[in-house]
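Hi F.,

I've been meaning to write this up properly since the lab meeting, where we talked about keeping a consistent format for the predictions we share between groups. The idea is simple: the sequence comes first, exactly as it goes in, then the structure tokens exactly as they come out, then a line or two of notes. No screenshots and no reformatting. I'm using this chain as the first example so we have something concrete to point to.
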Amino acid sequence: QVQLAESGGGLVQPGGSLSLSCAASGSIFSFNAMAWYRQPPGKQRELVAAISKGGTTDYADSVKGRFTISRDITKNTMFLRMNSLKLEDAAIYYCAADRTRSILSTSKVYDYWGQGTRVTVSS
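Output, unedited:
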């Protein structure tokens, strides 16, 4: 059973920074793709950033230049560094992983998901 656990959410001011972590129960090298999604209140879940096994990254246009996705294979952990946070960044952030899909796929839903961690942006 694959388990993903997000952490690091909390309250930040607009313009502030926050780092999220996603710890996997097993080796993240087994995943071909990992990603961060978010779901703002009342809205659909959307892709924030994704990273492939080889380290290729993909970002939503809304976060390019502000967010950075990375992973530490030795720690079985994926990270999301969020800078210059905006009010619209407030959401529950989810970690996702898949053993086979491409990070660029738009047709396949990630197989594994964490429980989410809430990010609140408020002054």
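Notes:
The chain has a mean pLDDT of 96.
The two ends are 40 Å apart (CA to CA).

If this format works for you, I'll send the rest the same way.

G.
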